[in-house]
Each structure stands twice: as C-alpha cells, then as structure tokens.
Write a structure and sequence with these properties.
The chain is α/β, with parallel strands linked by helices and 183 residues long. Helix content is 46%, strand content 15%. The chain has one domain: 3-Layer(aba) Sandwich (Glutaredoxin), CATH 3.40.30.10. It has 8 helices and 5 strands; from the N terminus they run ααβαβαβαααββα.
C-alpha cells in the first residue's frame, strides 16, 4: 500500500460513521472491529454471509471484536435482512459513495468473479438449497465484497473476495487476532 493510499484509508476510516452516528475510528480504538463489506441486499451471497455471521456471532464477540456491516444505499433492505438473520443491533455503515470500498481496495468484479460457473453453482446451492433466495440488485451489483479486521485504525486481518461466492470464516479471522495478541 502506497503512502497516498494509506493516507486515504486513514482519512476515510476517520470520517466514516455508523448509522447511529458512532465514528469508525473511535470504535476501532475501543476494540477490534470486524468490518464486513456487503454487495447488496438482493445478493444471495450477502444473505449467506449474514447467516454465517449470525451463526458465528458469539464466537466473534468472545474475541472482543464487534461486527459492523458496510453496505451501499439500501439501508432499509439491509436492516430488514439483518433482522431476518438475527443480527438486530449490529452496527451498520451506509457507504453510498463507495468511498470505504475503494479505500479498502475492494474493486468492481469482472464477469468470471460474478457469474463464472463456480459462482453460479454456489449461487444455486446457497440461494435454493440453503434457502437464502435470489433477489434483485439494490445497489452496485458489480461491487466485490470483503472483510477486514481493524484495530486502532489499523488493518490487522483481511479477506478480499476473489469471487462473489467466497465464504470467509469470520470467527477464525477474529480468533487469529486474539491468539496473536496473547503471544
């Protein structure tokens, strides 16, 4: 990461606030933050991610990390989806300008990353067989997702999705930070 990119990242982290008005930089000083960048409320894989986070929530929170969901434009849809998956009260950041996405290096996906054969198969499996459904895009459907663990405004862990269908282990990412801190 270049010095200019690092300055941009610090500036964006400092300026970002949750929907309830809490600044991301302040929250990351208090405890590690698991920053989960979603694509859009209609995305099958975002729904699957919310399900995974809900299932792993207690393990994530036991590490001391707090979860913040980052989304674009569709606040009501994301709030409704979060509630559907038992994630009421999880903090959210609406990044309609996608400044956070860009600052964290999350790019727009290429065709194979979004609609390649493996992605389509995973979409069918997650959407139909696992029951997450298939919705229509409510924001930039080309935006790639990602997950970052930040503490004291510093990235200490990350997963940049190679495809829209990648499925990170959120609890493990947080546990790795906790075990590194214990050493």
């Amino acid at each position: 990461m270049t010095k200019e990119n690092l300055r941009d990242l610090c500036r964006v982290i400092d300026a970002a606030s949750t929907t309830s008005g809490e600044r991301l930089a302040v929250l990351s000083e208090e405890s590690p933050v698991l920053l989960v960048f979603l694509r859009h409320a209609g995305c099958t894989f975002c729904r699957e991610a919310l399900s995974d986070i809900a299932r792993q929530r207690s393990a994530i929170e036991r590490t001391g990390a707090r979860i913040i969901l980052v989304h674009m434009r569709d606040s009501q849809s994301i709030e409704k989806l979060a509630g559907r998956y038992g994630l009421q009260g999880v903090k959210r950041i609406c990044d309609s300008s996608q400044a956070l996405y860009r600052a964290f290096g999350l790019k727009r996906g290429r065709l194979m990353q979004l609609l390649g054969p493996k992605v389509l198969w995973r979409g069918i499996h997650a959407g139909l067989l696992e029951g997450h459904g298939i919705g229509r895009p409510t924001a930039d459907s080309f935006q790639m997702p990602g997950v970052f663990l930040i503490h004291q405004s510093t990235i200490v862990g990350r997963v940049r999705h190679r495809t829209a269908a990648d499925r990170p282990d959120y609890a493990r990412l947080c546990a790795e930070l906790k075990s590194a801190a214990a050493r």
